[in-house]
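step: validate -> pass
step: tokenize input -> pass
step: predict -> running
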Amino acid sequence: MHDIILIKKLSDKKLFNRLMPYIKEHSVSKETWKFLNTLRNYFKSYPDNDAVIWSEFKVFFFAVSKLKPDEHVIYEAYFKRIEEVDADSEVVEDVLKNYITRDYATQVMNKALNILNETDEGVIEDVETILAQYKKEIGCAVTKDDLFVPASLKSAIAECSSAGFTWRLNELNKSAGPLRIGDFAVVAARPETGKTTFIASELTHFATQLKDDIRPIVWVNNEERSSKVMSRVIQAHFGTTLSDLLTHEDEYDKRYAAEIGNRIRIINDDMGLNSVKKLSALFDECNPVLIVFDQLDKVHGFTREARDDIRLGKLYEWARDLAKKFGPVIAVSQASEQADYVNYIPMAMLRGSKTDKAGEADLIVTIGKDREDEYKRYIHVPKNKLWGGPVSKEELRHGKFEVTIKPEIARYIGVY
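step: predict -> pass
step: emit ->
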């Protein structure tokens, strides 16, 4: 039954990619191992499928497998049991732990037999090393090195001042400095202020600092149509008008593919991935170097909380954990109605869970709007716990800057 549950759950491609490294051939039956290998080939043959279509997979399985008549009966029974079983997540975790345990038990047995037969130079204490790794992998033990930060000023400074993403808007380089792994930034403004333009302008600059697209920047878009956002990204990268892009469409397409390629990946808003659970699985699979949520408040999760401010607090805590695991996270948020035509918006005017949002963030950037001049914007940094960079100035740590938005080229233009 364990094998059947495992096969049923691994019909999800993300889970298959995440869990397969833990499953060894010796820890499952030969029939299950054949199923798993065929699943791997199936996902390669149908790359657009995020999950197994069982009727399709069954045809695929029997077409690629060279089976004897008696084996055909066995696998027909497997398919029947797969259809009947219900594999919930808790059961799967238990099943996975079972396979991990089998793998380590086999390692211990082989080590002991090799020592007994004098075919291994190892000693019996090597078994302790295997057991320690087993406990660590299933999450019931950590080592001292995992737990404590090194007591070294050199190590701490190297960690905090490591290379990060510098901003296109030089005002933010002088105030905040680079964004590094572990940094969680919140960008807030009123509607129709230019938050998407700000993100497009900055992300395209970040993307030019990547050497390849192996670890992309992932933009979780919950606002405008994703195709429209992508056109803004391309526009921001070149700093040109939409009419110019359309006039020279093929030329810009080739240049964008060569200069940016897949360094910026915008999640298709039609894919139904807008939840903590699904996004966590996606991030584990694509290992992003930076994540943007536009807007984080609209991500589904922690809905059992009685109050929305508590739910938002947990959502922002989750985002901060992502920053530690993958790389910087930028969460776009709304400012409250009190911020209408306020030039330099304070963090008290964040909408929703003001305390938890502000508490989780390392950096808060607000964008104010002018009542008289529709292209004037006011950048304020009310919270800044970042380490800074080579051009940062302490007197500008909580700076206030007057800049210009140029929506026709999807850019913000500063003074510095």
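step: describe -> The beta strands are 184-189, 217-221, 264-266, 290-294, 329-334, 363-369, 376-384, 400-406, 411-413.
step: cleanup -> pass
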